[in-house]
Amino acid sequence: MGPVANEIQREYSCGHFKWLASKQCSEFKEKRKRCPPNITDFEERPNDICGECKPKTHPEGMIAFMNKMSSKRQLCQL
Fold first, then answer.
1. Superkingdom, according to UniProt (predicted)?
2. DSSP code string of 50-68
3. HSE (CB half, 13 Å, CA atoms) of 65?
4. Strand pairing category for 37-45 and 5-12
Protein backbone atom coordinates (compact mmCIF):
# COMPACT_ATOMS: atom_id res chain seq x y z
CA MET A 1 0.00 0.00 0.00
CA GLY A 2 1.27 3.48 -0.92
CA PRO A 3 1.11 6.70 1.07
CA VAL A 4 -2.08 7.46 2.96
CA ALA A 5 -3.57 10.60 4.50
CA ASN A 6 -4.67 10.47 8.14
CA GLU A 7 -8.23 11.76 8.40
CA ILE A 8 -10.89 12.40 11.02
CA GLN A 9 -14.43 11.33 10.17
CA ARG A 10 -16.99 13.81 11.52
CA GLU A 11 -20.71 12.96 11.74
CA TYR A 12 -23.30 15.72 12.09
CA SER A 13 -26.81 15.48 13.55
CA CYS A 14 -28.25 15.92 10.03
CA GLY A 15 -26.70 12.56 9.08
CA HIS A 16 -23.97 13.94 6.80
CA PHE A 17 -20.32 13.00 7.18
CA LYS A 18 -17.22 15.08 6.52
CA TRP A 19 -13.60 13.95 6.42
CA LEU A 20 -10.91 16.29 7.70
CA ALA A 21 -7.26 15.67 6.99
CA SER A 22 -5.22 15.65 10.17
CA LYS A 23 -2.05 14.80 8.24
CA GLN A 24 -1.57 14.93 4.46
CA CYS A 25 0.53 12.36 2.64
CA SER A 26 3.80 13.31 0.94
CA GLU A 27 2.28 13.07 -2.56
CA PHE A 28 -0.35 15.66 -1.68
CA LYS A 29 2.30 18.03 -0.35
CA GLU A 30 4.46 17.62 -3.46
CA LYS A 31 2.00 17.04 -6.32
CA ARG A 32 -1.39 18.08 -4.86
CA LYS A 33 -2.56 14.51 -5.53
CA ARG A 34 -4.94 13.02 -2.98
CA CYS A 35 -3.93 9.81 -1.26
CA PRO A 36 -6.27 7.10 0.07
CA PRO A 37 -7.71 8.03 3.48
CA ASN A 38 -6.75 6.33 6.72
CA ILE A 39 -9.49 7.16 9.26
CA THR A 40 -7.65 7.68 12.54
CA ASP A 41 -10.43 9.23 14.61
CA PHE A 42 -14.21 9.56 14.69
CA GLU A 43 -15.96 12.68 15.92
CA GLU A 44 -19.69 13.11 16.54
CA ARG A 45 -21.36 16.52 16.45
CA PRO A 46 -24.84 15.76 17.88
CA ASN A 47 -25.72 19.47 18.28
CA ASP A 48 -24.44 20.68 14.90
CA ILE A 49 -25.59 20.39 11.30
CA CYS A 50 -23.23 20.54 8.34
CA GLY A 51 -22.72 23.59 6.14
CA GLU A 52 -24.89 22.14 3.37
CA CYS A 53 -27.91 21.88 5.70
CA LYS A 54 -27.50 25.23 7.48
CA PRO A 55 -29.88 27.93 6.27
CA LYS A 56 -28.20 30.31 3.88
CA THR A 57 -27.99 33.83 5.23
CA HIS A 58 -26.52 36.93 3.67
CA PRO A 59 -24.90 39.84 5.49
CA GLU A 60 -27.13 42.91 5.80
CA GLY A 61 -24.79 44.91 3.58
CA MET A 62 -25.18 42.35 0.80
CA ILE A 63 -28.99 42.48 1.06
CA ALA A 64 -28.95 46.29 0.85
CA PHE A 65 -26.62 46.10 -2.18
CA MET A 66 -28.87 43.57 -3.94
CA ASN A 67 -31.96 45.70 -3.26
CA LYS A 68 -30.18 48.76 -4.64
CA MET A 69 -29.12 46.89 -7.79
CA SER A 70 -32.64 45.54 -8.26
CA SER A 71 -34.18 49.02 -8.03
CA LYS A 72 -31.62 50.40 -10.53
CA ARG A 73 -32.46 47.59 -12.93
CA GLN A 74 -36.17 48.45 -12.69
CA LEU A 75 -35.45 52.14 -13.40
CA CYS A 76 -33.42 51.25 -16.48
CA GLN A 77 -36.24 49.16 -17.89
CA LEU A 78 -38.81 51.98 -17.68
1. Eukaryota
2. -TTTSPP---HHHHHHHHH
3. 5
4. parallel
Calpha distance 27→2 (Å, rounded): 10
Domain boundaries, the chain: 5-77
Model confidence pLDDT, tens digit, residues 4-14? 778 899 999 99
Which H/E stretch holds residue 37?
strand 37-45
b/e 20-56 (16+ beta carbons within 10 angstroms → b): eeeebbeeeeeeeeebeeeeeeeeeeeeeebeeeeee
Separation between Cα atoms, residue 48 and residue 46, nearest integer Å: 6
What is the pTM assigned to this prediction? 0.56
